[in-house]
Amino acid sequence: MYDCVVVGGGLIGMLTARQLTQEGQSVLLLDQGSLGAESSWAGGGILSPLYPWRYPSAVSELARYSASHYQSLAADLFEESGIDPEWTQSGLLILDIDEKLQAEQWSEQFNAGASLITATKLSALEPGLQHHAEQALWLPSVAQMRNPRLVKAAAGSLRHHQVAIAEHEAVTSIEHEDGQVTAVRTAQRRIPTSRIVITAGAWSAGLLKGITTKMDVQPVRGQMLVYKAEPGLLQHIILDQDRYLIPRLDGHILIGSTLEYTGFDKSVTGQAKQELHQKALALLPGLKHFSVERHWSGLRPGTPSGIPYIGEHPDIKQLYFNTGHFRNGVILGLASVQLLTDLIQQQSPILNPVAFGLDAQH
After folding, report:
1. Does domain 218-302 have CATH number 3.30.70.870?
2. pTM above 0.85, yes or no
3. Helix, strand, coil proportions of the chain in percent (round to 5)?
C-alpha cells in the first residue's frame, strides 16, 4: 500500500511525487499517457506570467516564490538526471505597455525590478527586432526553462529517487469511505492508498466528477511554432499583443501562443500557423531565412480567475488537488508543489492557502 498516489504525470505531478518521496513517503505516480507529454511539454517555459499585473495577487505570490527557487531546482534536477533543463536568465521585453501604471504598481509591490526603457535602448538590446514602440517594459530578472528538457529531467529525477511510476494507466474512479480516501481504480487494478493528490491538469475536473462540482477547470488549446534559427538572432524574451518569442540557447526560437476553447481537441490548424508565422516575421524579420521546424498544440488547464486550485477536499480527508494553472504551469508549479506539501505535512505554509481553495474560486 502506498502512502500517496499522485494522479497526473505532468511537471506538477512529477515534482509532487519527488518532494513527497524526499519527505519519506512511499509514492506511486500514475498517468494516463506518458510523463510530461501534455501541457508541461508543450509550453514556452517563461518564468513569469504574461502581463502579471492582470492576475490576482495570489498568482504573483506563487510566481515570486517559484522564480526565486527555480535555478536551484534546475541544478538539482541536472545532477540527479544528467539532463540540463537550461535555466536561462533571458530577461523579458514587453512592447505593448498601455497599462503602465498597473505595471509599475505591480513591480513595486512584488519587487520585480521592472523599468521603462526608450526605443533606442530597446533597439540596442535587440538590434534585429522590428518595432514601433516608443517605450518598452524591461524585466531583466525573468528567466526561462526549456520545457522538453525540464520534463525529461524531472522524470530522470524520479528514477533517481526510485519513485514508482505507472504510465498509460488511466484512473477510472476514486474510492472513499466515511469521508476518507481508500483507493484509486484504474482499468487494470485497484490501488489502496491513504492519500491521493490530483495533478491531472485539464483532466482534473473529470476525475473528480461526482465528488465536487466546484472545480471549474477546462482545457484551453494553445498552438506554437519553433524555428531552427542561429544563436544570437534573438537574445531576450519578447512579448507583444499576447504573442511571445522565446530564444533557446541553441538558436531555436519559439512563437506562441493561441488561446482556443475547443474542448479536448489537440489538433493544429493552418490558420493558427499562418497567424503565428506572420507575427513572428513582423517582430523578427530575420526569421524569414529560417524554416518552421515544428508546429504543435497543448491543452492548458484554465480557470475563471487564473488562480489554481491547491489544497484538500473540504469533505473528503486526504484527497488533495493541485491543478488549474492555465498558462502558468511552469512558473507557478514549483511554489504550488511546495504549498501543497506544506499542507500535507502540516507544516507552516509558504503562502496563505485560502485563496487557492475550492470555495475561493467563486
Report:
1. no
2. yes
3. 35, 25, 40
